[in-house]
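Note on ligand handling. Small-molecule inputs were canonicalized before submission; formal charges were left as drawn, and no protonation-state enumeration was performed. Where a ligand contained multiple stereocentres, the stereochemistry in the source SMILES was retained. For adenosine-5'-triphosphate, this procedure yielded the string shown in the input block below.
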Amino acid sequence: MSNQPVLTVEHLALTIGGAVIIDDVSLSVAQGEMLGVIGPNGAGKTTLFNLISGVMTPTTGTVSLEGRDVTNQTIDARARAGLGRTFQTSSLFPALSALENVRLAAQVKLGGATSVLRFPRPNDAASTVARAGLEEVGLGHHSETLAGVLSHGDKRKLEIAMLLATDPSVILLDEPMAGVASGDVAGLSDVIRQVHKSGRTVLMVEHHMDIVLGLVDRVAVMHHGQLLACDTPDAVMADEAVQKAYLGASL
Ligand SMILES: Nc1ncnc2c1ncn2[C@@H]1O[C@H](COP(=O)(O)OP(=O)(O)OP(=O)(O)O)[C@@H](O)[C@H]1O
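Structure output:
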């Protein structure tokens, strides 16, 4: 991990119909860092991801990627600049195989027409990238399995493989453990750990506190649209304001 910030948000704010959703949030994430984003329901975590990824435009403030202001850039332009994102809801094509799903994502990155071929040439560039992505998330043995019949845990891994096929330098994971059976959580967090270890910068919204605290370098705590704390897991756990935000629940 270097100290060079790869993602910076400064004085980010979003007001909708008079309601303040995000309130003056500033933070920066270093190259190769893994940052967890936690906070009670409705705290603004997903909205923060929406502002970073370009799904929403802030009322004020800026988002910069590798020192370049991308605040007014489209989602696609940010993706081309190296920002990748998963959503809380699944973004898979259930009737296509795991390999075909990742292959489509790879085709988008490689350029040219996207097409779904039942028998793609096995060694074209997109297939090669897709197979590597599936191997990286431990789904190599499921390449011909239809995405729709995979377990929730494997679907999440497949979404990560699709993201990897677009070769992002910064990855936003929005509640990757949502809906995943408890027995699959450890395997999925191993995959996320590996993705991070391979040098990518990762931001992750996650409600499973034990998972977050065990994976990340720092934790950002959102509360009522504000950034309450952003520090190491130990420092955040000891922070009184954070404890209060969780209504006295022990973290
Ligand atoms: N487009 C919108 N219009 C109006 N209010 C919105 C909009 N998007 C989000 N909000 C409100 O902003 C607040 C923050 O929502 P957000 O989904 O970012 O919270 P969250 O921390 O991700 O919550 P959760 O953990 O439940 O997913 C909520 O009160 C939500 O109702």
